[in-house]
Amino acid sequence: MYITEIFLQGFRNLSQLHIEPSEGINVIYGSNAQGKTNFLESLYFCAMGRSMRGKSDQQLIAFDAQESHIRLLVQTQNRRDKIDVHLKQNEKKGIAVNGLPVKRLGELFGTLYAVIFSPEDLSLVKDAPTERRRFLDMELCQLSRVYYYDLQQYYRILKQRNNLLKEIQKKPSLQETLFVWDGQMVEYGERIIAARRRFLVRLDEIAAEKLARLTGGRDSLQTLYKPNCEDGSFAERLHRNLERDILFGATQSGPHKDDISFLVNGREAKVYGSQGQQRTTALAARLAEIDLIREETGELPVLLLDDVFSELDESRQKYLLESIDGLQAFVTCTGIEDSVRKYISRDNLFYVENGTIIPQKENRH
Ligand SMILES: Nc1ncnc2c1ncn2[C@@H]1O[C@H](COP(=O)(O)OP(=O)(O)OP(=O)(O)O)[C@@H](O)[C@H]1O
């Protein structure tokens, strides 16, 4: 799939723009703090219905504006869709697909598949398990509305169960009502565990291939699912941990505690990997997502690469460019290095200055 038109109004520092990107690699370049990442953010928002940087909807509205609009036209193999996003200062966001309001975010997923890679992606390997669960959930939600629904239900029940655990500390007789939540939690939790396991088996295979290519075979990668509860054991774990859960006033076991382990050359990349190896690992996982989305949906996602090239050596840059050939990509950078330039036509260059994006094909003189 690819985006054919982008309209933005009052989105962070991008006051007004309309561009028609190419189907291939589009390079958005300019100095620091001009609006490059903001531009990628607007595209990501249309895929996932939320900020990629964890910003609130209101923080995305331009400082001097009351509201913000994004409109994208997306061409798939057999459809043409229109996504409209409307953010307002004091109201809930409005999202519509082909003019029909989206009531739950799950209805938006799949209209635009996007894979993003940014320098912050290092946190996928380096930081706490929350980052890795977020990666898993974002990907699985894009691929499956059922997963999104299960996840929503699971977290809703988890919140209610945790509230009840705190109540039980004050009034132990309430413990009798806990089984109502436990039954539902296990049902949704087991489904989440199974979906994550299936996803990671495939991700492991593809990411290993990508990493081997990125490093010219020097490094190997294994991506392992580290579930907090093995399949079928969630109910028993909840039961076993009950006293501890009551003591903490919080549920100590379940998929909300899952993790992923990235092993580079057999060792935990988080602990032993160099900065470069961690970065390449995160990149391999993102590149694997592209293949997975294609396998599952038959569509190639749109790739958003935020300031990634400056961090990679020339051979990795070359492999990255080759491996994204054939899909639509939006690549931001501060300058265009010669090694990248030879892959890009001038028609696909967009210069950003102070929130204005100028297509270079219209700027030949
Ligand atoms: N809500 C907002 N309204 C208007 N401007 C904003 C808003 N939020 C952030 N900005 C401005 O956007 C600019 C940053 O844009 P962005 O993050 O896209 O930069 P960038 O071009 O990607 O730069 P870098 O190369 O440094 O990453 C900053 O000048 C910031 O003040």
UniProtKB/TrEMBL annotation:
<feature type="domain" description="RecF/RecN/SMC N-terminal">
    <location>
        <begin position="2"/>
        <end position="332"/>
    </location>
</feature>
<dbReference type="GO" id="GO:0003697">
    <property type="term" value="F:single-stranded DNA binding"/>
</dbReference>
<keyword id="KW-0742">SOS response</keyword>
<keyword id="KW-0227">DNA damage</keyword>
<dbReference type="GO" id="GO:0006260">
    <property type="term" value="P:DNA replication"/>
</dbReference>
<dbReference type="Pfam" id="PF02463">
    <property type="entry name" value="SMC_N"/>
</dbReference>
<comment type="similarity">
    <text>Belongs to the RecF family.</text>
</comment>
<dbReference type="InterPro" id="IPR001238">
    <property type="entry name" value="DNA-binding_RecF"/>
</dbReference>
<keyword id="KW-0067">ATP-binding</keyword>
<keyword id="KW-0547">Nucleotide-binding</keyword>
<dbReference type="GO" id="GO:0009432">
    <property type="term" value="P:SOS response"/>
</dbReference>
<dbReference type="GO" id="GO:0005524">
    <property type="term" value="F:ATP binding"/>
</dbReference>
<keyword id="KW-0235">DNA replication</keyword>
<protein>
    <recommendedName>
        <fullName>DNA replication and repair protein RecF</fullName>
    </recommendedName>
</protein>
<comment type="function">
    <text>The RecF protein is involved in DNA metabolism; it is required for DNA replication and normal SOS inducibility. RecF binds preferentially to single-stranded, linear DNA. It also seems to bind ATP.</text>
</comment>
<dbReference type="GO" id="GO:0005737">
    <property type="term" value="C:cytoplasm"/>
</dbReference>
<keyword id="KW-0238">DNA-binding</keyword>
<keyword id="KW-0963">Cytoplasm</keyword>
<feature type="binding site">
    <location>
        <begin position="30"/>
        <end position="37"/>
    </location>
    <ligand>
        <name>ATP</name>
    </ligand>
</feature>
<dbReference type="InterPro" id="IPR042174">
    <property type="entry name" value="RecF_2"/>
</dbReference>
<keyword id="KW-0234">DNA repair</keyword>
<dbReference type="InterPro" id="IPR018078">
    <property type="entry name" value="DNA-binding_RecF_CS"/>
</dbReference>
<dbReference type="InterPro" id="IPR003395">
    <property type="entry name" value="RecF/RecN/SMC_N"/>
</dbReference>
<dbReference type="InterPro" id="IPR027417">
    <property type="entry name" value="P-loop_NTPase"/>
</dbReference>
<dbReference type="GO" id="GO:0000731">
    <property type="term" value="P:DNA synthesis involved in DNA repair"/>
</dbReference>
<dbReference type="GO" id="GO:0006302">
    <property type="term" value="P:double-strand break repair"/>
</dbReference>
